[in-house]
Fold:
Amino acid sequence: MIKARQDGLLFMLLASLLLILVGCFGINTMGDFRVFFYSTRCLLQHHDPYQPSAVEQVYLAAAAERPQPDPMGTAETPKIALLICFPNALPFIAPFALLPWGLANVLWMMLVDASLILPAWMIWRTGSQTAPALCGGLAALLLLNSITLPILGNFAALEVGLCVAAVCCFLAERYSAAGVLCLAIALILKPQDAGFIWLYFLLAGGIRRRRALQSLALFALLSLPGLLWIAPVAPHWPQELHANLLAGSAHGMLNDPTPFTANQAATAMILSLQTVFSFFWNDARLYNLAAWLLCAPFLLAWAAMTLRARFTPRRAWFALAAISALSMLPTYHRSHDAKLLLLAIPACATLWIEGRRSRWLALTLTAASMILTGELPLTLMVRFTQYLHLDTARLGGKMLTIALSRPAPLILLATALFYLWAYLRQSGGLGESPAAELKGTGFSPYIKSSQNNGL
Structure:
């Protein structure tokens, strides 16, 4: 165990140092952060941040501190001009927007690094007494596959860190106030990601439901400043936000999920099943409907199991593992959102240390989902597929192209279904014995907590 703990610690240290080092090399890029930075600065100057022309003027006026061109090769002006987040998130960017770009850039990169590294260490620490090498290896793998996040500066890094912190606080029933605050801010920054984590605690009942309702109340309270701030400047911001979303997902744009766009690498970063179904129907109404029809039964089954089963920390990790993958599939998510798969590591380690026959499948799916949702592996897969010149006019060619160029939604679906099946077993739906239900979670901080609360 001492050797395994040392190995896990070494994995984590090396991955953390590499993530920080890569972020330092990409300090002048911060493509996503530029969107938040200049849009918030636009609002600080009492202009509408959802109007592309207004944000462009603020950006061009800051010529002295303009960052270097984006090495990813995307056009700067459209990327700077389109804001697609809710206004309640902008007050959190305001302190950075008041600073010069260079200083704000450095501070934001440090915040992104901390938001990725600290939750990875929290997950490793939970399993350091029982499966330290496995938890350390998987957490390090996810960190290594997150090296573009400090370069982009996306909200996803902060949202992942806040969600993991909230989950650990709620399951251990320690520092509950901090957990409530973390989940409330995560809901503000990326409700499409944190919303399903919040929903789990709401459905789980008991003290978990109380924490979810407290987070919702705090979310509403913390949202007021942003909504009051935007109201006199941009009273029609909902329509403008909707227009920006439609413009970004139009054919040929960065968020276009269809295979007919020129920027295939950008489309491959989209994790939702729309990128798969669009090979068969080039109609947003059809591929959106198909994605929801496929995911809805599994989401309902997950919700029903959560309502029916008695809460234990062990079951909670399996529920969170399933929803961390499943929530990426029906709606628009990009590869950086998949870092939420950190929540799948405890469930994977639980199966591993119990020696179940499915432990290798759990490890394979978890590791593969972390690898195949990374920006660099997806880019390489797209390049490789383009060299093959596959015939997409036939069904066989379409299926092979999907498997090679859109692996992320497929592996996420397989991972979600596996952990949903494991969650069903934990809930007694497939004949799991009562003794197995009372078995420990494999993570000492949570065993003590559940015993103290009569669970």
